[in-house]
Each structure stands twice: as structure tokens, then as C-alpha cells.
Amino acid sequence: MEHHLMWNWPMIVYLFLAGLGAGALAVSGIVVLWDPAGEFRHRAALVARLGAFIGPLPVIIGTILLIYELGRPFRALNLFTSNFWFMFFNPSPMNWGSWFILFFCVFATVYALTFLPWKALLRGERGERLEARAERMRSPMAVICVPLAIAMAIYTAILLAAIPARPLWHTPVLWLLFTVSAISTGLSAIILVQRFMFRKPGAVRGAIRREDPAFRVSEYYLVSMKVLLIIAELVVIGLFIMFAHMTINSANFAVQVLLPGGELATTFWLGVILVGLLMPAFIEGFYLLRTAVLGHEFEWPYVINVSAPIAILFGGLMLRYVIVVGGQITGPIGI
Amino acid sequence: MTTVSAPTMTRRQMLKRVGAVTAGVTVVAAAPMAARAAKQEVRYAMVIDTRRCSGCQACSIACKAEFEVPLGAVRSWVEHIEVGTYPNVERRMLPRLCNQCSEPPCVDVCPTEPKKATYKREEDGIVVVDDGLCIGCAKCLEACPYDARFMNPFKGDPVKTKGNGVADKCDFCLHRISQGVQPSCVNTCQGKARIFGDLNDPTSAVAKLVDEYDTTVLMREKKTKPSVFYIDADYIEAKKDPKADQYFRLDTHRNERSSKRWA
Predict the structure, then answer these.
(1) Are the CB atoms for B194 and B185 separated by under 8 Å?
(2) What is the distance between the terminal CA atoms of chain B, rounded to a whole angstrom?
(3) Which of A185, B58, B89, B209 could form a disulfide with B47, with the two C-beta atoms 3.0–4.6 Å apart?
(4) What is the CATH number of domain A9-329?
(5) Which chain A residue is nearest to residue B258, measuring alpha carbons?
(6) B230 contacts B93 by C-beta, under 8 angstroms
């Protein structure tokens, strides 16, 4: 069966990238704010740095995709033609979102700049001054960036959930699903980049080295956090389906597209649930439990090491695909 | 005495001032609401007498000719519906167009500001699209429960634009009714199934028909308060009752829109 889709792949990729960037930035900001003087932050300094660098990029790429989809780029300026406070009188979540994107891009970029190694980039007194200033600005910027990032992640779901005519989107569970998925994909992106960088021992100068036992501990914490997020996401997907299934009216009809026999069932169960959630959860859970229960070293083959976060990223993209396409093909067409 | 009365006076003055400020704020805050709640003089509406419709699609053709609607899209169309339980089955015709809702969900989601690109005209209640403001995000297409909107890639610019174009929809033939002429679909209807007029004018044909008949609106549960009323289309409401296990087959007769395909 062929369907006419108004929101196509740029929209799907945008939702995925915006969630990824927001998740990475939220993780980075939380790490910075967690324990300002303590050991945890030192140990996780690389995570905070990578998260800050990853944060703004996907959102900027996604925004370019969105504007490309409009066809006439300058029309997008119509979203900003009045003053900022007017947004509180406009109930359109897309208008709120456009302001969120604007502030996110600005603040996330500034936040990322505070992580640049200024001393190494600019030699002399100027570099040292900038480095000191960046150190001072990091925590205040994190205070701004964490709520912004969480607002971004929620907004990507509210954009869809605010539409009563599409029953698959119009549920109160969607924001939770997208937020958990955003943080999970953001964390996976951080872990993936970290693993690429640590392919060779001691590849990153200045950061903790692979041989350093602190690195293993930080990896262990990150991976266990990620497995917890995967379990949370499975629970939220269960809630999402249960909520729609228990509803008598159109939401029940809409969710049939995801259940076995539905049009998107294969993509959903194979792409999202199996590859995107269960597989990485089992692989990483196995190595985690081996360390936690049997006391082995937390170490694993490189291929598995890299494939688990890739699978999670793929699952996040497939989740956006299934929700965006599924919502449109089950919309109330006709009477 | 004076020492006592002076603070009393100031308190009274202060109370007065507070009262005045409160009243002023209330008036300012309530002003837009009052303007919205004020009875609009004209509310254009359409009554569709489905008993008189033969499903000839003349209105669809007239509409396409009137607006040069691009291939694969329609502003107005006629659905053919088979309904009932054997042996009591029948074929019904259901002319469709934008419902010109009193509370349009498409306007709520429009993101442009300070003026929305799609808005409900205060003077006559018609929901229109401003080609100059529309950014082409297609959010209103998703929000419309009636699927009455489409993206028109030819509108706004003389040449085909690369992207979505702008949102387009039925506007009750605004250019015709502003000149005192009936909308194109009403004008062309062979069976006189479409009746157009001002619902707030008690002498108009639509007001009389809505008074006389138990009319149906589409998707009443969405609470959009449409301005298009159907006579003898109760089966639409009946089919929503899960207990009424009746056969229902809908043939929308809309062209298969081929601009973008997926899945």
C-alpha cells in the first residue's frame, strides 16, 4: 500500500539528530554539574568534553535539513519576525521549538568553546587567559545548557504529540519515549566516539589513558548507565503500546500498525526492539554482569565494543522513522 | 486625629489605586477574549443535502477549474460510501470540502508570528492561508482531522518552487462570494445538494435548513465545530458505535497524490 507522506526523511533524520545532540549535551552538562570539585568529574572529564563537542553539531545539521525541506529557506525567518515574548501567546509548539533551536545552537556552541584547549591553541599569555576564562564559564554555561537540552528533547516529541488528528502521536507517553531515547542515543554517540579515539592506547593526549584503571571504571559506569536507559526505554515503549491498546477509540486503531501484522511491524520489532534495544542490552549486560558478578576485568572485543552503540543509534533512528511514518499513515483520513 | 486619618486616607487611596490597576489589567487581559467572543456578524456555512447528491463529481471539476488545483490534489471532492448490513446495504454520496471549523486545529499549530499564516477571518469565519507568510512546514496538514489541506507547489510563485510550496485549501471561493456570487461548487451542483449562505442571517437558506433538519457534522468528537452541515448523513455517527457492527466501505475518489511516496 502506498501512502502520501508530508513529513518525510528530512523530518525523521532531524528528530533523530536533535534528540542525539540534546542527549549528548544533557549528559555532558550533568557530568560537569554533578560533583564540581570531586573525583567523579575528573574521571569523566573526557565524557563531558566529548558530549559538549557532539552536542551542537547534529542539531545544526538537523536544522539545515528542516530548512532544506521547506524549499524556500528564507521563509523560515517568518518564525522569528516578532519579539521573543510573543511566543508565549502562540500555542504552536513548532514556534516554541524554533526558539529552542536558536538558543540551543548559540549556547551549546559557546559551551563547546569552553572545552577547547585554548592553552595549546594560542600560545602565550592570551591562551592562558582564555583557558582560565573558559574554566570559569563552563559551569554557568552547563546550568543554562542542561534545561535547554532537556527542553529540546521533549520538544521533538511535543511537536508530534500536539496534533490531535494523528492518534499515534497524540499520546501523553510520547515525550517520555523521545526523551529517554534522546539521552540514550546521545550517550551512545559519546561512547562510540570515545571508543574510536581509544582504539590505540594513549591516543588522546592530556586525557586519561586506556591503560589507566580509571578509564575502565568510567567505561563501566557509562555502559551500565546505558543499559539502564535501554531498560527504561523498553518499559516506556511497553507503556506507549499499552496506553494506545487500552484506548477504545482511534489510538487503538493506530497502534495496530506497530503490532504484529501491521504495516510497520517488521521495522518496529526488528529495527527498534531487537537491533536497537535488546541486542545491545544483552551484549553489554553480559560483559557488565561478568564484571559485577564474577569479578573479571571489564574488557571486551573491539568489534562488539563499537557495534553496540552503533546498534543503539540505528535503533533511535528507526524509532523516529516508525513513529513519524506510522502517525501519518494512520491519521484520520476521510470522515 | 489627623495622625490617624492620614494613614486611612492613604490606605483608601492605595486601595483605590490598586482597584483601578486591577480593573485596568482585567480589561486589557480580557479585551482580546471579548473581541473573540463578540458575535461575528457573518458566519458563512454550507449545508449539504446528501439525499440530493448523485455523485456526479461536477463540483470537484468546477473547483479544480476555478483554482487550477495541481494534479493529484483537490480542494473539494465527493466520497462514495457503501454502508449497511446485507441485505440492507446502500451507496451514499458524501461531498467534502474544508469544514471551516469555528475552532480550527490547523490555526492552533501554525508557527508563524506575529500573524499566523493560516487564520480564521474575524469578519466571516472563513479559514484562509496567507501565501506570503506560509513557510510550507506542512504542520497544518497533519493537524487537520479532515485531510482538507494539501501542499500547493505552484502557489505563491509563478514557477514551481523546489520544496513543498505553501498550504492550500478550500476558502468557500472567497473571491466569488466577496462579489456576491455563489461558490463555484454550489453554482455547478446539478442536484442542488450544496446550499451556501450566512448562518447568522435567520432568513438565509442555510439557517432555515439547519433549523429544520437534524444535521450532522463530521467528526463531532474532535470538537472543531465545523461550518459544513450534512443532512441525512447520520450513518457517519452510527458507524462510530462499536456495537453497531455494520459494513462500511469508503471510496474517497481523491486522486492518488503522487508527489511524495514512502512505505
Answers:
(1) yes
(2) 87
(3) B209
(4) 1.20.1630.10
(5) A4
(6) no
Which residue of B143, B257, B262 is in closest CB contact with A163? B143
Helices A213-246 and A279-294 sit at what angle, rounded to 10 degrees? 130
Show me where the domains of chain A are located.
Answer: 9-329
Taking a C-beta distance cutoff of 8 angstroms, is the pair A188, A276 a contact?
Answer: no
Residue B38 DSSP code? S
Read off the amino acid at residue A324: V
Q: Label the pairing between strands B44-49 and B228-231.
A: parallel
pLDDT for residue B259 is more than 50 = no
Which of A222, A220, A194, A193 minimizes the C-alpha distance to A209? A194
Interface contact flag, A94 B145, Cβ < 8 Å: no
What is the share, in percent, of chain B residues with pLDDT greater than 90? Answer: 41
CA distance linking residue A268 with residue A271, whole number of Å:
5
Radius of gyration of chain A (CA): 21
Beta strand B88-96 pairing with B118-120: unpaired
Is CATH 3.30.70.20 correct for B44-251? yes
Residues in chain B closer than 8 A to A324 (CB atoms): none
Task: Residue B262: list chain A partners with CB under 8 A.
Answer: 3, 5, 8-9, 325
Strands B194-198 and B44-49, sheet pairing: antiparallel
Using a CB-CB distance cutoff of 8 angstroms, which residues of chain A are in contact with residue B105? 163-165
Candidates A75, A79, A89, A160, partner chain B, best to mutate (most B CBs within 10 A):
A75
Residues of B in contact with A93 (CB under 8 A): 109
Contacts A332 to B, Cβ<8 Å: 145-147, 219
B33 vs A39, more confident:
A39
For testing contact with chain B, the best of A90, A258, A335 (most B CBs within 10 A): A335
Could you read off the pLDDT of A144-154 as tens digits, one per residue? 999 999 999 99
- What number is the ipTM of this complex? 0.76
Asked if B261 lies within 8 A of A4 by C-beta distance, the reply is yes
Count of beta carbons in the 10 Å neighbourhood of residue B12: 10
Across the A:B interface, residue pairs with CB atoms under 8 Å apart total 132
Cell of A199: 582504539
Q: CA-to-CA distance for A178 and A16, rounded, in angstroms?
A: 9
Kindly tell me if the per-residue pLDDT of B38 is higher than 60. Answer: no
The letter for the amino acid at A103 is F
B114 cis-preceded (ω within 30 degrees of 0): yes
- Report the C-alpha gap between B242 and B240 in whole angstroms: 6
Nearest to B164 among A2, A70, A328 (CB): A70
Query: Nearest-CA neighbor of A306 among A186, A208, A193, A213?
Result: A193
